[in-house]
Design a protein that fits this description.
- The chain has helices at about 1-35, 40-50, 85-100, 115-120, 125-135, 150, 180-190, 205-220, 230-245, 250-305, 310-320; strands at about 75-80, 145-150, 155-165, 170-175.
- The chain is mainly α.
- It folds into two domains: about 1-65 and about 85-140 and about 250-330, no CATH class; about 145-250, no CATH class.
- The strands form two sheets. A two-stranded antiparallel ribbon has the order 1-2. The chain has a two-stranded antiparallel sheet with strand order 3-4.
- A hairpin with a 4-residue loop joins strand 3 and strand 4 (about 170-175).
- Helix 1 (about 1-35) runs antiparallel to helix 10 and helix 8 (about 205-220) packs antiparallel against helix 9 (about 230-245).
- The longest helix is centred in the C-terminal third of the chain and has 54 residues, at about 250-305.
- The protein is elongated.
- Keywords: Coiled coil.
Amino acid sequence: RSEKEVSEKLDLRIATLKAELQRCEQNREELKTFKKSFYLEKCLNEASKIERKTLGDDGSKRALLLGTSWIPSLSIKRRFHPFPGDEIDQFRITHEYHKKLNSRFDELGSIDDFDRLKQFLQIDFDSIYNLSKEIWFYRGEEGGLKAEEKYLRQEVVEVEVSDDVNGRKYKVMIPKTLAPIFKTLLLKYGHHDDLRGRSGLTDGMRSVGSTLLSIVIDKMCRTKVEDVTMDHLKQCHFYLLGIQQITGFNLSRYRDYLRLKFTHAYLGFKAIRWEKEVNEKLDLRIATLKAELQRCEQNREELKTFKKSFYLEICLDEASKIERKTLVDEWF
């Protein structure tokens, strides 16, 4: 009985392993030749342009667009939210809606849900649009904009900002360690008049906005672009939007570049990462299945020819004599 049961279990396990092995090998081959959508090809192209760079490489425009997220220290000197409470609540609902839509692409590395990866590789315009909306409607966590104490306790220096439109110059006060960053920003983009601010903006608020913008940039250049997450994109966009809200700085084109074009690069790196991970998992799974299949087949063959002991042969002989009889048949 035990021998028959083990043999049947081995047969079933071998059949199951063969079916799963065939499925994994088919998935691996399909992944090699799977045609990606036009929109994902654009994302992969954007990713290839900035591969292996950090967020600050080349001093390019994208270096001013994306900061790594950071965990504020416990000793926060100042927090304020640039948006009214009713707007925050309304936007948060919309943000959660788009976040839920996008959640189907959060974890794509499972080989047991291969169809979901294929859906991502066939991503369409609407899916990219939803990601953009999740970034746009994000309004930050509790506390709003944050400035760390290590910046606010520094000695400040005066930096001059030119207003080419009105022919004026403004003086802003910037923490000493941030001044070189702000001066570089002015040197590269100051001629666009992006940092003039709204009419009537006080020197104090202009200094606050300039300091916050410099902090965002200071938090950059520490993460490789391919490691950027959705949280990084949302956090940076929120800060740029918040700074624009309180100062009137014209940061729209930087935010749009972040929200639109850089979303493509983010998705491209996501596709590269998950496709590689799934391939590696499939290779490992196939190797594991082949090893287990070989072991089960060897066990089955060994069971067929395994030499039983003399005493077990006696037991088998006795069993064959009274097969299909009841316990008392031999008594009568």
